[in-house]
Amino acid sequence: MRSSTIEPGLLNIFRWFVAIRLSLLVLVAWSNQQNPDPTNPRFPEAGIFFFGILMIMLLWPRLQRVMGRAFLPVTLTIASVAPIIESTTNIEGRLAAGMSVDDAFADIWIPFFLLFVPLLLIAWQYRYRAVLVFAVGTTLLDLAATIPLVETATTNVAVLSVVVIGRGLLFAFVGLVVAKLAAAQREARRSLAAHSTTLEHLATSRERNRLARELHDTLAHSLSGIAVQLEAVKTIWDDDTDRARTMLDQALADARSGLGEARRAIQTLRASPLDDLGLAKAVAVLGENCEQRHGLEVETSIADNVGDLDPELENAIYRIADEALTNVVRHAEAKQITVDLRRKAGRIRLSVDDDGKGFDAAGEPPDGHVGIRGMRERAEVVGGSLAITSGPEGTVVRFEVSPWK
Q: Whole-angstrom Cα distance, residue 72 to residue 60?
């Protein structure tokens, strides 16, 4: 298998599939109670049981973090087995109710469509050998479960075997096509990400060079001129006090002018998304970009009561969120991230949680985790606090600050 982390879009498809199937089964069970049809009995209990378990698993984030790498294979296995068991119990119940073999097997086509969703998920997520395991496994399970129900009817056994084996061959072919498409899509995405990274580095380098030139032409020149003037003032202070005072006033004016230029140059370092989008939207875009570029499931929750903050504080929050997400992508091997920003009890709180492998947060940061030091420094500059807790179930980064300090 290639990966243990399902892409967010596919996970949503998985959830919708399970929710729709479970709803239909519950509707059938309700219909059986309200208007039972003895000529066409249905037995949805097994399906409700298995798809109910799947629904709980897919909607329980903590269970996903606890199970870790095993979560996806387990849920896909249940989704692959459930339609077959549901169909078998339905056939068995119909036969027990006195229906003929042909009538009991009237809905044998339903598992064909229900198994297509786990097939597509497996083909898109894993290598082709996983598709073969799925095709062969579902075929053997279906034959083993249903043939004993019609073993006295030779014709039905032959037809059933042909249908089930043919379905398995079709699954293998469709899975091959989907697996190749998925591989091509992943390769294109990797190339695009590499190209995007190159452009980003180039843009960063150009911006740094521009800022270096601007600081050299403004701040450096101002300081150089002030130093020359002060040296002159020092030289003539005792002999020509009036001229020295005039030169000192000029040096003070130049210092103020240089300070204004420095502030303007420093302001350009402020994250441009904050100027264009505002803090809330900028943090949300960080999560969206992380999800799209790296295939992680990022849940972003931004409260409406954050409000307008001091630009320096907004910049610190944005940079801490950006660095925390970057660390997760580079080091955590996570599949889910939660970003939460809100005002609570008069304080601004930012949290970035992941379900990755974690690290020793109490010790020195691991190699490559230099961004942690930068986050702590940013927190200290704006009078806030940064807490990091980490363990096998993931890492939690918490930044908290009072906007009125």
A: 13
Express each pLDDT in 12-35 by its tens digit.
Answer: 888 898 999 999 999 988 988 888
Nearby residues of 299 by Cβ (< 8 Å), 6 or more positions away: 287, 336, 337, 338, 339
pTM: 0.50
Place of tokens 């370092």: 269
> What is the rounded distance in angstroms from the CA atom of residue 261 to the CA atom of residue 263?
5
Whether residues 167 and 37 share a domain: the answer is yes
**Same domain for 396 and 335?**
yes
CA–CA separation, 259 and 349 (whole Å)? 33
Residue among 242, 236, 113, 94 nearest 171 (CA): 113
Helices and strands in the chain, H and E counts: 15, 5
Average pLDDT, stretch 163-189?
84
Is the C-alpha dihedral spanning 323, 329, 333, 338 positive or negative?
positive
What would you report as the CA-atom Rg of the chain, rounded to the nearest whole angstrom? Answer: 32
Say whether both 140 and 276 belong to one domain.
no
Cα(273)–Cα(278) distance, integer angstroms: 7
253 and 396 belong to one structural domain: no
CATH code at position 290:
3.30.565.10
Contact 360, 389 (CB under 8 A): no
Residue-wise pLDDT for 365-398, tens only, equals 655 556 788 888 888 988 999 999 988 888 999 9
Query: In terms of domains, do 107 and 152 share one?
Result: yes
pLDDT over threshold 60, residue 216: yes
Q: How many CA atoms lie within 13 A of 4 on its CB side?
A: 15
pLDDT at 81: 92
Per-residue pLDDT at 23: 92
Q: What are phi and psi of 19, to 5 degrees?
A: -65, -45
What are the distances in angstroms from CA 249 to CA 127, 333, 383?
A: 75, 60, 36
Per-residue pLDDT, 399: 94
